[in-house]
Design brief:
The protein is mainly α. The protein contains five helices and no strands. The chain is globular and about 45 Å long.
Length: about 100
């Protein structure tokens, strides 16, 4: 139950980071957190499923069960590790160039 609370409590801060990353890359983030998770996951190359599950839990659509929380938490952490690696490699000049070409 504490892990579920941790995931739910972290969702807002994670979405702030996700939206900032999309803006950094010249995108206008959606209002829906599940869509934002998918957009970031596609850009950064991680599985959006755990983030979508947390988003649906927070919205009250589908509660996370104690049986699945371990898998969701592991995927959530893996996604964040991948995001951190992406940010560590981020090159604003390269991003500006790719936006100018599209």
């Amino acid at each position: 139950a504490r892990q579920i609370e941790l995931l739910a409590a972290s969702a807002s801060a994670i979405m702030i980071i996700f939206r900032a990353l999309l803006r950094l890359n010249g995108e206008s983030p959606a209002k829906d957190n599940v869509h934002v998770s998918g957009a970031v996951a596609r850009r950064v190359s991680f599985d959006a499923t755990p983030f979508a599950q947390v988003g649906r839990h927070v919205r009250g659509e589908k509660a996370i069960s104690t049986a699945e929380v371990g898998t969701i938490l592991a995927g959530y952490l893996q996604g964040m590790e991948t995001l951190v690696a992406y940010i560590d490699r981020y090159d604003a000049n390269a991003s500006d160039t790719s936006r100018a070409q599209t």
